[in-house]
Fold:
Amino acid sequence: MLVFVVAGVAGCASAPVGPPVDAPRLAVGDRWQYQVTDNLRRGAVSQLDMEVIAISGRSARVRLGLTDNSGRAEWIDEFDGRGGLSVGSLWHEPARPFNPPAQLLAFPLDDGKTWRQSIDTLRADTQLKDQILIYGKVGGRQTTNVPAGGFDAVYVYRIVQLDDEEFWRTRTTRRDAIWYAPEVKAPVREAHAAEYTEKGGGPDMTTISTESTIIELVAFRPGGK
Structure:
């Protein structure tokens, strides 16, 4: 899932450090279209559409639609005014509330800034307490090119550890590279790589890759007009 406030390093170059980037002021009708390339499915390409459908204070409800060869799926995420995901999905799971909101981007984005977050959860499958762990670091400005054009973006590295550990495997760890562009109020490029490791030790212990995707902005249309 693309992270709101939802590729490779090729095509990116370092740029001078800019001022801190504040959280976006979203407006009803803001709309983004992304191209999603799935490298675990031989480069299969799908389309992700995102549109702000409601604003309450600084919080926003965003409708997402993913279209691929199997059809189209839609769902709604909710974001707080600081870029936190208050209701939604961090991975391939039904939408759920997060309290506190999952701080996927910690605004203001300032060069060198780091953050950590632990979110207590109650697993729906086991009814046991667990945690989601988030770490992020802002790496400064980089220029990057995507189908929507060239952008002077803020680079962010993030690790998300999910609350899905089983007796036979570790929790899923997802490593994200993000290029956030203030002028479009969202990332213009994201690269996600997720994996877990089987438990037990010995020669049969294996690390399983579960995601390798590149998400690139194709078009942005501002709302509120």
